[in-house]
Amino acid sequence: MPAALRWNRGTGAALVRDFAHNCVENDRDSASESLPPRGSHVARRVLVTTSMNWAHLGTVIVAAFLASLVECVEALTIVMAVGTTRGWRPALTGAGAGAFVLTVVTLVAGPALQRIPLTSLQLVIGVLLLIFGMRWLVKAILRASGVIGLHDEAAIYAQEKAVLARDRGGNRVALLTAFKAVILEGLEIIFVVIAVGAHGLMAPAAMGAVLAAALVTLAGFAVRRPLARVPENALKFAVGVLLSAFGVFWIGEGLGYSWPGRDLSLLGLLAVVAAFALLAVAVIRRPAATRRILGCVAIVIACIPRVAHAQAPTTSRPAYDPERYDEDWSLLRDPTKRSDFFDPIKWIPLGKNGSWFVTLGGELRERLQDLRNSAFGLPSPTHNRNGFHRVFVLADIHVGPHFRTFAELVNGEIVGATTDPSPAERDPLDVLQAFADLVLPVRNSGALTLRGGRQEMALGSARLVSFRDTPNVRRAFDGARAFWTANGRRLDAFVVRPVDPRLHVFDDIPDRAQLFWGIYATGPVSAVKGTSLDLYYLGLHRNDASFAQGTGREHRHTIGARLFGTRTGFDWHEAHDFHRRHRRDNDVNFDWDVEGAFQFGSFANTKIRAWMISSDWGYTLADVHYSPRLGLKADALSGDRNLQDNRLGTFNPFYPGLQYYSQVGLFAPANLLNLQPNITLDMAKEASVNLAWSSLWRESAADAFYQPAVEVVPGTATSDRHIGQEASANLAWQATVHLTITATYAHFAPGGSVRKVGGRSGDYLLALGQFKF
Fold first, then answer.
1. Residue 450's beta-bridge partner residues?
2. Between β-strands 509-510 and 348-349, what pairing exists: parallel, antiparallel or unpaired?
3. Cis, peptide link before residue 204, omega less than 30° from 0
């Protein structure tokens, strides 16, 4: 890249004024000084290199301009709503303060990036650009195909004015509203500018953003109303294509790939991404075409994994764990062990001896869901088609062998028919996890780890404590945890509060109305081969708990045990979907997972006496085609026998993985009898199909039916204990070590008292793609 295109730390008007002139002069001088006679092969190559630099420069300016144009239009709408409702002084003051903060961030972040090694920066920025671009592109595709409505600036303007008119907070609220609008939209602009302009093209990227901001500001104040006629979706479509193409380009550069045609290959990437996006719009608009393409995908899913059987096994290396903080990539300090596309960011050394290092990673998940009559359509029928978008970005910093910090950010979005999204589905940007570990070696007996901060937890089978992977925002806890590990055994002790997700940026807080504590031990039973045992005590305090018996303060203790066999390599876990891990002992076909618990304590002025027995049994026919596993789940969770006495018998499942009981999440595991025969088929090495049927009953006729989050359904405490039935079919394909594709269909029908209070049959269709890196 010519020196004139590299970042100059000097700022001000001179940089902008001289940029284009220097680019042209340097290209002309370097070409004329070394140009062989006209028409020679070398001369043509020099001229092509010059045109390639300008191809890269042009796409940078266009990407920054279009992205900034969209974000500025959205910010302008809110600022104008503030100005016309509360006055222009607080509106302009808030907007100006936001612009000042953004300028400072840009001036600090831009030069700081120059200190990062080029290849590492290219790879990280490339991954983030690809995630960011796909987020824009997916929304634009769904809007263009009619799945969700177009962005309406006039409606947003009217809504903001109505909110400001009702609020009596005065100029302070008006100023903060304008400030927040500029900051939130501006941060996206800064990311795009820094990302596309990193290492050499920051000035032209900034020029594109400034030009867009000036154009939108002048147009907005000229017409004195929101720029509703700006084709935002078309612009977002273009920006999504540009950022996605840039992301692929930078990832290749970071990995040392030499693109054909160098910078001109960007134009080819743009064409490919745009073609795929337009094809997606056409497919979604035409159901018949969709069915044909899905048929082809099914054939690919059925055939491609079979090729994997013939492939040679790969070298043992870390795997992507459902709990990402458990991954250990220190193996990659040996360069000969690095074979994956993302290995350069999995072990980034911070010192010469290799004990200080950083691991970067993340996840992109897209989920399309069609659900008719969620929770049996109670209290009223529903039909929602939604797209769910989730991004995780994480950093794991190891400072020697005894201290590490782990941080993970989450972005969750929902688009579609849902008008009142749950905070577990929509969270623009927040801290999902942020904790520090202090590791203390125990002489001849493993290690003791002390952990403090925000963290995910999953205990045992996840029947009682799970990180709840199905929604966009996984469940987390704030508090302290200590655990000892040695020789396959582990002992945990913790005191935490569940995190309450909110709908805005960095506003998730711990739920002060709940406190959760416990001790959990797990390890192998040495006397019985392939058998392990969990023993635990869990405590929960809630200020306002609700059951069919009433509402009051709950102080509950649980003691339990779990006996499970791993000789077939199977153990249920919500984050592993439904399919089992590969068998490790082909001579043993029987697997089991049996758990029981007893609860006691107080609820309001009554005593708690509740129980749970849950089991999962299976037998694998290893010598039969597709190695079918015949399974049977049987669960019994107690209900209250008398709503008028001084004893509460309803079992509280705490923080369960609902997918263990139901693919749809129809009910809470309380006052429940569940019998589920199922069969799992290994269609190929990395693809499984599961078929299941469940019959659901209330354990106690005196107690009610409970929806998820242990919410009482009024009128269901009748003599007819039948709840309903659910049938499901599930497909999971581990396409690569990074990509998992899952599809689920379920049909459910109510029975007994649930049908009498208005319960309705429903259907659930899910398509999910999850990419981890």
1. 438, 482
2. unpaired
3. no
Q: Where are the beta strands (DSSP E) in 442-513?
A: 447-455, 477-486, 489-500, 509-510
CA atoms within 13 A on the CB side of 625: 0
CB 186 within 8 Å of CB 98 = yes
For 250-265, the pLDDT digits (tens) are: 777 766 667 776 667 7
Q: What is the pLDDT of residues 662-709, one digit of tens each?
A: 778 888 899 999 999 999 999 888 899 999 999 999 999 999 999 888
556 vs 572 pLDDT, higher one: 556
pLDDT digits (tens, 9 = 90+) for 495-541: 999 999 988 888 899 999 999 999 999 999 988 888 899 999 999 99
Phi-psi region of 709 (alpha: psi -120 to 50; beta: other; left: phi over 0): left
Q: Work out the mean pLDDT of the chain and round it to a whole number.
A: 78
Check residues 362 and 274 and name the one with the higher pLDDT.
Answer: 362
- pLDDT of residue 436 exceeding 80, the answer is yes
**Structure token digits, residue 765:** 């269709």
93, 127, 170, 173, 205 from 180: Cα distances, Å? 12, 27, 16, 10, 24
d(CA 173, CA 152): 24
Compute the distance between CA of residue 320 and CA of residue 154 in angstroms, rounded to an integer: 45
Which residues have a Cβ under 8 Å from the Cβ of 545 and sit 6 or more positions away? 551, 552, 553, 554, 603, 652
Q: CA of 532: how far to CAs of 461, 524, 595, in Å?
A: 12, 4, 12
Largest CA distance in the chain: 102
pTM value > 0.85? no
Close Cβ partners of 336 (under 8 Å, ≥ 6 residues apart): none
Cα 146 → chain centroid: 24
Residues ≥6 apart with Cβ < 8 Å to 110: 7, 194, 197, 202
Sign of CA dihedral 142, 143, 146, 148: positive
